[in-house]
Amino acid sequence: MTALEIAERVQPLYRRIxxxxxxxxxxxxxxxxxxxxxxxxQGQMIFCLFGVGTGAAVARMFHPAGRELTWxxxxxxxxxxxxxxxxxxxxxxxxxxxxxxxxxxxLWWSSVVGTICLGLLQVLWRAGARWKWNSGRTTLGFTALxxxxxxxxxxxxxxxxxxxxxxxxxxxxxxxxxxxxxxxLITRWVRSRPDSPTPMAQWFRTALSVTAQVxxxxxxxxxxxxxVPPPSPxxxxxxxLAEMSTEEVQRQVELDHRALREVVHSxxxxxxxxxxxxxxxxxxxxxxxxxxxNPAETDALRDxxxxxxxxxxxxTRMVALYLGFREVRDDALRARAYLLGYCAGATLLESxxxxxxxxxxxxxxxxxxxxxxxxxxxxxxxxxxxHGVTSPEHMEMFATLGRLYRDHQQRWRExxxxxxxxxxWLAGRxxxxxxxxxxxxxxxxxxxxSRIKRRMLRDANMPLYEAQEIMSTIVGDTxxxxxxxxxxxxxxxxxxxxxxxxxxxxxxxxxYLSNAFLPxxxxxxxxxxxxxxxxxALGIDESNAGPAWEDYMTPEDGRQRVVLEAVSEGVGFYAxxxxxxxxxxxxxxxxxxxxxxxxxxxxxFEYNSRDYDFNFDFFTDDKIVCSELIYRAYxxxxxxxNETVLGKTVITPLGLGxxxxxxxxxxxxxxxxxLFLDTAAGQSSAHFARMQNCAPSMDRxxxxxx
Length: 706
Fold this sequence. Notes:
The chain is built from 24 helices and eleven strands. It is of the alpha+beta class. The model has no long low-confidence stretch (mean pLDDT 86).
């Protein structure tokens, strides 16, 4: 049997192994995502299958169908096999993972780098690179040098130590030379390769045709879904006037006339307040060089918008009712119903267009107004207002009713359908609102494109966020070493006796994979809210704690929940034995008055049950992360240091710890040290350490384990 025949028999196995492994991995991830938890064995299987699938895919590239196995390809396949062995040892053998020499990680890294470099050399060789050519010799040399430099990292005494200067110079040069040379050689090969058209199989032609038709139908359906306008609040909303007697309509008109005056006055004042707030906050943010709203500004903006939406709702119901004015049998009463409805509609349009004009072109404010506030605001409410005040249907309805007003205004005035003063007020309001609507120019075309763009971005971001959530959950639940926590339950009981409501906890558990992706040694923060007796002393109980009180009072495995924290499952209350059952815990106490602590805890209770924010976006608070809970509870009572992590402005647990160690014992300091449960290197049990032992922990590398 020739080498080519052997290759043709072996090559299909790569594809089967690849897709079988990736399919099984996908099923395990879906099961974990739906259950909300990834168990250790499940996480190991996912990593195992990922390695197998990736290895098979790489083998397919190194050993393409219809090609003999070259000596470079054989060497690359041997490197793939070695990398698989070392990778699976890391996945399944805890001893191999934690060996003091780090030999497992060194061998795995070397085999992976060797695999990639040998594979690239093989591709270059197939593309025509030869040692006797200048371009081939240069490219092959740069590629080999790059591989050697990367493999060298694995054999340093400390693989994660700072890179030496000569390495930082040579490695980018080798990478650049390899990239440029590879691009030149592969481009030359693609251009010179002879065409070899292969007839398309009938089954493939049929499948391609069916797929194209499905894509066209699905695309048409998606475009239709994108472009369909949101429902109007006046669609399918029959007026109740037809079922009301003349006396009932009369009473309703009188009530709504008074209510309309109140709403109009309130909306005018609200519009002025919103414009003043917007100008003030923009100036403050420029002066402070801030890019996001602080919690107080967020609350103020939401309060403004919430009041606007309540007034908008009252006007909308009024307009919907009096759109049925033609059902009123009495002529004078019919005119009064029409005038009230038309004035309410004019005010509704004017106030909405004024709000949209103020905030539409401010991305920060617009995003915040579209953000959900669980239990209070639905998402995309600003866009709903924007559509409502630019909808061609609504504008046409307003224009049609306006013609009726202009045709009959004088007659209604003479017939005194309202008292003279009341009619003058209604007419004046209609005229001023109509003039303002004309002056505030909002393009319906721009609004339409804005709505389409927003829907497309939402549809694109949704699967990305869900994928990020799945991967973050896997990483957060994966612990490379299984062992009991260093902090004992007896130490937790002692620590609880030292804690007070409002204390901030920093927590670390070694060997969790997520530690590698979070800044610094301290990856997690939580809030100690205390026992019911402690909260009662602060004036907090079920009468003012809101819906969160029920969750707080529900025991966890028979224990009182005393800690509020944001974890991958969301924001919730936990027993101290759960939250502090870790390897290291630092407790800090805000130096605030009891009333301020009370306010902070009540604020924190409002975030109970919110989802975890896998985007780590401090701008939004419909989903939050651990340190964001502390930040929002204590703002503006505590000043916290903003940091930029991956381009986002955040407050980190490490930053909170640094603030405590920096301010401890200083006049005007805001955080004071309470306790530190530390574990010395090489030990397997924690001990209570002093403040002077706490400060060095801020500079421990995040890879520090034991």
